[in-house]
Design goal:
The protein is an alpha+beta fold. It contains one helix and nine strands; from the N terminus they run αβββββββββ. It has a domain of 93 residues. The longest helix is centred in the N-terminal third of the chain and has 23 residues. Keywords: Membrane, Transmembrane, Transmembrane helix.
Length: 145
């Protein structure tokens, strides 16, 4: 056949199929199901968020308990200690004594997590160290004037 003209009542090209095309629907359905299954697996395997569970006041510092090891960034700024944790916690505050002098501490929420601030009338010095203990994470903050 040399063209698309009628010959004996027939075209040389097939007519359009009036049935709907199901292949795009099948691919779209498979994509949606794949995304949903992936989201469910991701939710199941996501680690538990780190939470500040408890703060204990000790004679020369604080003991801070977490359910997991948090990412930690700490700085001494003009005798004030600021510890930033990638964790969740409720705001709280308190006071402790170091060498008979008051030291105020406060836990506040920030965009990056939780900030523990220790402030005294005189410049503070000290250190902090964390280690796993009893299935939790224990951070010991030791202070001196």
């Amino acid at each position: 056949m040399h063209g698309s003209e009628y010959k004996d009542g027939q075209h040389s090209t097939p007519e359009d199929d009036p049935r709907p095309k199901l292949w795009p629907r099948v691919l779209g359905s498979l994509a949606i199901v794949g995304v949903m299954v992936g989201m469910m697996i991701g939710r199941l395997t996501m680690p538990e968020p780190t939470e500040l569970q408890q703060i204990e006041v000790q004679p020369q510092g604080l003991v801070v308990w977490f359910n997991h090891e948090p990412k930690l960034h700490g700085e001494w700024v003009d005798g004030t200690l600021g510890l930033l944790f990638a964790a969740k916690a409720q705001p709280q505050n308190g006071q402790l004594k170091v060498n008979g002098r008051d030291v105020n501490w406060r836990v506040s929420r920030t965009d990056a997590g939780v900030m523990l601030t220790l402030v005294a009338a005189r410049a503070l010095k000290g250190d902090w160290a964390g280690a796993p203990q009893d299935g939790r994470w224990r951070l010991q903050v030791n202070l001196q004037e």
